[in-house]
Design a protein that fits this description.
The chain is α+β, with helices and mostly antiparallel strands. The protein has 15 helices and 20 strands. The strands form 5 sheets. Strands 6-10-11-20-19-18-15-14 form an 8-stranded mixed beta sheet, with helices on both faces. Strands 1-2-3-5-4 form a 5-stranded mixed beta barrel. Strands 7-9-8 form a 3-stranded antiparallel beta sheet, with no helix packed on it. A hairpin with a 5-residue loop joins β4 and β5. α7 packs antiparallel against α9. The longest helix is centred in the middle third of the chain and has 23 residues. The radius of gyration is 29 Å and the shape is elongated. The two termini are about 25 Å apart. About 35% of the residues are buried. The mean pLDDT is about 95.
């Protein structure tokens, strides 16, 4: 039957309910039990013949004339209800006009059928919502990935594994939040609109504020406002919130996504590595149930102590370039040799990062800390005391990608201004992702910010744990309009 014919048939059935004085979309429901509780206490409830009231969606119907069987599913489990002609009013109305997908309320006593199936003997039936479109086949489900993402509610209906992903995602973020709160971090909310986007190398989205008649940027990072709170006297702060980056779509990148950043005064990146490893292992265990996960044919073992890998050493080993000696011209030549596109105006730091992502990062499968990169790649981190060409930064790298980044925060306003000026020079040469000069942040630093460690991660980490492209771990990812 064509979809239009199915919809017309269901509209006709809705009208049949209305014609019989039955509201097909009532506001009231009086559920007494969730289905999983009925099943776990089945023998006791069945013996007592206590009337129970359940509500849910019909996912199966079998009509046998003077009796019909239906499978009812709520958010916890499913159960069969059995309806006989002599047991309810309007039997024919319900038998002939209910469809798979309808929501109903069933009142009755529990019993076991001759085939041994735990069931409800219907004493009263109430329509709660009439479904006017057919559901996906519960066995084959949806196969088109674009439809699955665009109409996620249908994917959730037909695929329990997908529902489980988002339950795990809630555990993922709850574990991070609870861990930080137990460590006395204060959760805060920072502005989404910014006059100057900062804290990351990314191109922002722009929006217009009508009341102020001014353009603002959607934030690309949580970083700079949180560090202002350290200036203001808070010592431990974090935020879990949405950030927005106007960049390409791939298996690891979204334009709007959830990120977390925390900052702790009087700590450095050495402390950070111990703290982060403890946090990650707890998150992984709570989310997945263990400390090993699968990723594209690899088994990732998170349980061991994570090694520290020097950026300069592995770059020289895998890219064949000594960063202590390499000029920008030599790096550019290497990048072109690797087939990398060098856009107009990108500087030494961006070229190093491109080469790193091509030659080093893909081979880092097991979890590690990549530490002490060149100062050119990180404008917001402190320089190493014994080597000012490098900065005190860590990256959590596993599964061939970055899963978090942090550093000893730069709190010298003079050095920070110099770093921002270099970024602005790159912007003037054409680098759209170079960071902007933020006078308000520099003014805050001039009042004094304590030494601090900061760290951030995004939901890419969760996607890697699930062995999925990141947009498949978002309930409603942004899609091109049809």
């Amino acid at each position: 039957m064509a979809l239009e014919d199915i919809i017309n048939d269901r509209v006709r059935k809705l009208e049949n309910f209305e014609g019989a004085g039955v509201d097909p979309f009532p506001a009231e429901s009086k559920r007494s039990h969730f289905i999983n509780k009925l099943i776990s206490n089945f023998e006791i409830l069945a013996e007592s013949q206590e009337k129970v009231i359940v509500a849910g969606r019909i996912i199966g119907l079998r009509n046998q004339g003077n009796i019909f069987f239906a499978d009812l599913k709520d958010g916890t489990a499913k159960i069969q209800f059995v309806t006989k002609k002599d047991d309810i009013k309007n039997f024919e109305l319900y038998r002939d006009n209910l469809d798979i997908g309808d929501f109903v309320q069933v009142t009755g006593a529990l019993f076991t059928t001759q085939k041994g199936e735990k069931s409800i003997q219907t004493a009263e039936l109430k329509l709660l919502a009439k479904s006017l479109r057919p559901l996906p086949d519960q066995w084959s489900g949806l196969s088109d990935i674009e439809i699955k993402l665009r109409k996620r509610y249908l994917d959730l209906l037909s695929n329990e594994d997908v529902k489980e992903i988002f339950k795990k995602k809630a555990i993922f973020w709850d574990t991070i939040r609870n861990f930080l709160k137990k460590q006395k971090f204060l959760e805060v909310e920072m502005p989404v609109f910014e006059s100057i986007p900062g804290g990351a190398d990314a191109e922002p989205f722009i929006t217009h504020h009508n009341a102020l008649d001014q353009d603002f940027y959607l934030r690309i990072s949580l970083e700079l406002p949180l560090k202002k709170l350290l200036v203001g006297g808070y010592e431990k702060v974090f935020e879990i919130g949405r950030v927005f980056r106007n960049e390409g779509i791939d298996a690891e990148h979204l334009q709007d996504y959830t990120a977390m950043e925390f900052y702790s005064a009087y700590q450095d990146y050495k402390w950070l590595m111990k703290f982060v490893e403890k946090l990650y292992k707890l998150v992984i265990k709570n989310t997945t149930g263990g400390l090993t996960t699968d990723w594209q044919g690899h088994q990732i073992d998170w349980s061991k102590k994570w090694p520290k890998i020097e950026y300069y050493n592995i770059f020289k080993e895998k890219a064949g370039i000594d960063l202590k000696k390499a000029t920008e011209e030599q790096l550019a030549a290497k990048a072109r040799e690797l087939g990398l596109n060098l856009e107009l105006g990108i500087g030494k730091g961006r070229i190093i990062d491109l080469i790193y992502k091509k030659t080093v990062r893909p081979i880092l499968i097991q979890p590690c800390f990549l530490i002490n990169p060149p100062v050119e790649v990180e404008p917001l981190a402190k320089k190493l005391t014994k080597d000012e060409g490098r900065v005190a930064r860590i990256q959590v790298v596993a599964a061939g990608t970055e899963l978090g980044k942090g550093f000893s925060e730069l709190n010298d306003p003079i050095d920070q201004r110099h770093r921002f000026m270099e970024q602005m020079r790159l912007r003037e040469q054409g680098d759209k992702e170079a960071q902007r000069l933020d006078e308000d942040f520099l003014e805050a630093l001039n009042y004094g910010m304590p030494p601090a460690a900061g760290f951030g991660l995004s939901e890419r980490f969760f996607a890697i744990l699930m062995n999925k492209p990141v947009r498949e771990t978002v309930i409603f990812p942004l899609m091109r309009p049809k």
